[in-house]
């Protein structure tokens, strides 16, 4: 062992001397290549020293944050522009939009300084941003001039705002999602044409079978006498929204006609809709393989270029070039400055398994994947109570308490308590038993926190990565304070306990990709406001205005739209537009909205807007999401650990630096306390090292150098996986928070909606800094 150590020491000294020949600019360029390979960036930047420095500044996390802030402000202007939720003067919204466009322009100029000029103007994304900025400026000038002269105008450039989010450098996940949609479109169009042909044929059959039988609907309207109306009704039947209403007149006339509708539902609703999903999924997998191949090729090229900058000759001519440990260390310091020296030494030991003091190209190209493996560094600390009162903390009763807390049954018991508490939430609060039980539950939750703090070292319990420990403690303490201060708030905060049971799924996701469906929503909302604003009016409860009976539009007198009190389903502002589009996505009763909104613009062709939204959102994008989800879970269950991750785990075990995975619980704190703070007999037990390492879960590391791991990376950065996280975790927390606030301040619902999106933006920005 001493000879090996001496050999490594001499190699390190020789490498330190040779590293002095490496210039700072070369090291920065090599670090940039490795960083791009690590994060799968594919920007053809100029390799000159000045361009590299500008490129490093371009990728700074603070600038990413500012880009997201300006995009959010630009998109949020729809809240304050006519038709506005909160009206602001034209000069105010124009000034804010002008500042945002100026920021985007500065960002583009910065980007133009980074990459070669010919490449910059050949990139469609850059041209698209330049065109959007120019069109927005033109639209602002035209609208302001017409507004000053007292004429109305259409803000047609607002539909272009979401495209900025798609085309900026930070939006590569969004572009990947839309690229998947674009690749699947040709095959989808073929199936869609067959589907439309089927609907047309069935509509023609319905007209011939039922058109001359003088049947009427429940409203007294003629039944299946107009071919276009039949097409529309049968198209809605595919979504089952008007079933069985659409078939009842024919079914009441003769049971024989039910066969027609049964065949239609089997062929169009179940067969064609399933074929849509199959086509989307098949094309998604087909083009995913090619994208993975390109990513692997680009990553390897970057790493090879970095190796050529750092390489040196060892052992004379004819030997393969290598990278010394000193140069590798300097490289990693620049690529990942946050990791500790012990962590760097551990990673080097994985690559230099022969203890030669240098590595070849085959080992070097694994650097990006190795840095992507999340390794958690822990410091072994004794519990403060063990230092202050060792006699009490080390006694048999104390050890028994700590073993109980560390046992899996302890978690199950408190999960059961939370479920019982959830049942009590739905009971009558006026019952003394229910109101007193709340204090009992709070006491049990506080006891759980105290027992965990007694068992686990406090600094480890409240470590940065221990989100659920922070979450539990903050919520329980808040609920206790709220119960004491305001009994009215208590019933709302009690929901938090149930939310604590839900943990995020084991998928590392990118929140930014959530914006993919919102881009579609935003565009259709802008178009809908220009088409339908002011056509339907909503009157507050208690209003005596006679126009309330027909939603402020005489054309809706006696309509199902007005009778069902759908007046608030309108395009009078961006919030109402988003809610209406969401209702169309769910497709329940959407045919009523489709029937009435076209009437308000006096032309039946307005139905095209709603049908087009259903085709784009429900048939195409939702199926793309389902394909994402299916492939994500298939890969999650099929892809095992990479060879590199396995090598790292073995190296940690060889160096006796591993944090033991406690069989009762896989959490990091439990594992650390099991190994380091076990209060059993310490005699004969070897002293543990000060620093301990633990590999994070497989789903949280994108470390595999194989194609499968890159498939997993692409899938996990898709919008679908964030849908899972968003629905299971984030919406639960925020929804219950809104419930608690709205319980007291119901009139401020708009501000809570704004707060909701501000918090969503915060998570997007925080993820961009990783």
Mind explaining what this structure looks like?
With 770 residues, the protein is mainly alpha-helical. It has 5 domains: 60-167; 177-291, Helix Hairpins (Orthogonal Bundle); 390-499, Four Helix Bundle (Hemerythrin (Met), subunit A) (Up-down Bundle); 511-638 and 715-764, no CATH class; 642-711, no CATH class. The chain is 67% helix and 2% strand. It contains 35 helices and 4 strands. The chain has helices spanning 2-19, 24-38, 49-58, 61-76, 90-114, 117-122, 124-148, 161-167, 172-210, 227-238, 248-253, 258-310, 325-335, 341-351, 361-364, 367-372, 384-388, 390-393, 396-406, 408-425, 432-455, 458-461, 467-485, 487-493, 495-499, 515-532, 560-563, 574-586, 590-600, 607-638, 643-654, 668-676, 707-716, 719-742, 749-768, and strands at residues 323-324, 358-359, 375-379, 691-695. The strands form 2 sheets. The protein has a two-stranded antiparallel sheet. The chain starts with a helix and ends with a helix. Residues 16-20, 488-513, 659-689, 697-757 and 762-770 have low confidence and may be disordered. It is found in: Membrane. Residues 1-22 are annotated as: Disordered. Residues 61-287, 407-485, 519-634 form the Ion transport domain. This is Ion transport domain-containing protein.
């Amino acid at each position: 062992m001493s000879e090996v150590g001496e050999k490594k020491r001499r190699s390190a000294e020789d490498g330190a001397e040779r590293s002095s020949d490496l210039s700072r600019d070369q090291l920065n360029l090599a670090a940039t290549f490795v960083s791009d390979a690590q994060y799968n960036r594919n920007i053809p930047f100029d390799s000159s020293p000045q361009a590299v420095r500008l490129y490093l500044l371009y990728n700074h996390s603070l600038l990413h944050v500012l880009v997201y802030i300006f995009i959010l402000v630009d998109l949020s202007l729809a809240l304050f522009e006519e038709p506005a939720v909160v009206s602001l003067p034209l000069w105010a919204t124009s000034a804010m939009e002008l500042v945002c466009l100026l920021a985007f322009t500065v960002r583009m100029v910065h980007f133009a300084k980074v990459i070669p000029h010919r490449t910059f103007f050949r990139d469609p994304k850059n041209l698209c941003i330049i065109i959007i900025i120019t069109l927005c400026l033109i639209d602002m000038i035209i609208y302001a001039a017409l507004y000053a002269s007292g004429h109305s105008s259409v803000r047609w450039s607002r539909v272009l705002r979401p495209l900025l989010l798609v085309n900026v450098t930070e939006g590569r996940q969004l572009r990947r999602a839309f690229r998947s949609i674009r690749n699947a479109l040709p095959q989808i169009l073929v199936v869609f044409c067959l589907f439309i042909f089927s609907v047309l044929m069935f509509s023609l059959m319905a007209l011939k079978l039922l058109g001359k039988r003088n049947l009427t609907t429940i409203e007294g309207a003629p039944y299946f006498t107009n071919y276009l109306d039949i097409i529309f009704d049968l198209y809605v039947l595919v979504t089952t929204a008007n079933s069985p209403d659409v078939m009842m007149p024919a079914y009441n006339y003769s049971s024989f006609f039910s066969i027609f509708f049964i065949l239609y539902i089997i062929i169009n609703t179940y067969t064609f809709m399933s074929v849509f999903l199959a086509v989307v999924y098949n094309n998604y997998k087909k083009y995913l393989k090619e994208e993975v191949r390109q990513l692997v090729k680009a990553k390897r090229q970057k790493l090879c270029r970095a190796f050529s900058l750092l390489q040196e000759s060892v052992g004379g001519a004819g030997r393969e070039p290598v990278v010394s440990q000193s140069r590798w260390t300097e490289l990693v310091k620049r690529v990942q400055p946050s990791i500790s020296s012990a962590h760097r030494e551990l990673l080097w030991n994985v690559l230099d398994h022969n203890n030669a003091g240098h590595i070849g190209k085959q080992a070097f190209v694994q650097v990006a994947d190795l840095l992507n493996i999340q390794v958690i560094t822990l410091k072994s600390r004794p519990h403060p109570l063990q230092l202050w009162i060792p006699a009490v903390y080390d006694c048999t009763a104390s050890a028994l308490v700590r073993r109980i807390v560390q046992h899996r049954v302890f978690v199950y018991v408190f999960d059961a308590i939370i479920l019982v508490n959830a049942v009590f939430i739905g009971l009558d609060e006026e019952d003394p038993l229910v109101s007193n039980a709340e204090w009992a539950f709070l006491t049990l939750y506080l006891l759980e926190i105290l027992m965990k703090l007694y068992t686990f070292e406090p600094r480890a319990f409240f470590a940065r990565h221990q989100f659920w420990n922070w979450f539990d403690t903050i919520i329980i303490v808040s609920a206790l304070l709220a119960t004491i201060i305001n009994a009215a708030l208590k019933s709302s905060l009690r929901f938090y306990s149930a939310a604590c049971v839900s943990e995020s799924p084991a998928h590392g996701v990118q929140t930014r990709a959530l914006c993919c469906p919102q881009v579609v929503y935003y565009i259709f909302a802008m178009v809908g406001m220009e088409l339908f604003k002011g056509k339907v009016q909503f009157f507050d409860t208690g209003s005596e205005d006679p126009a309330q009976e027909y939603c402020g539009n005489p054309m809706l007198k006696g309509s199902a739209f007005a009778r069902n009190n759908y007046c608030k389903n309108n395009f009078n502002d961006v919030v109402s537009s988003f809610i209406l589009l969401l209702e169309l996505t769910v497709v329940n009763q959407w045919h009523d909205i489709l029937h009435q909104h076209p009437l308000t613009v006096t032309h039946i062709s307005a139905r095209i807007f709603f049908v087009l939204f259903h085709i784009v959102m429900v048939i195409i994008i939702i199926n793309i999401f389902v394909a994402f989800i299916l492939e994500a879970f298939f890969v999650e269950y099929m892809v095992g650990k990479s060879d590199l991750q396995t090598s790292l785990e073995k190296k940690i075990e060889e160096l006796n630096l591993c944090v033991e995975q406690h069989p009762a619980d896989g959490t990091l704190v439990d594992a650390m306390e099991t190994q380091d703070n076990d209060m059993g007999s310490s005699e004969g037990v070897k002293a543990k090292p000060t620093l301990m390492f633990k590999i994070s879960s497989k789903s949280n590391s994108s470390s595999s150098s194989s194609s499968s791991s890159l498939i997993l990376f692409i899938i996990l950065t898709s919008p679908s996986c964030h849908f899972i996280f968003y629905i299971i975790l984030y919406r639960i927390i925020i929804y219950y928070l809104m419930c608690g606030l709205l319980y007291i301040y119901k009139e401020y619902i708009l501000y809570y909606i704004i707060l909701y999106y501000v918090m969503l933006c915060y998570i997007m920005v925080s993820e961009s800094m990783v």
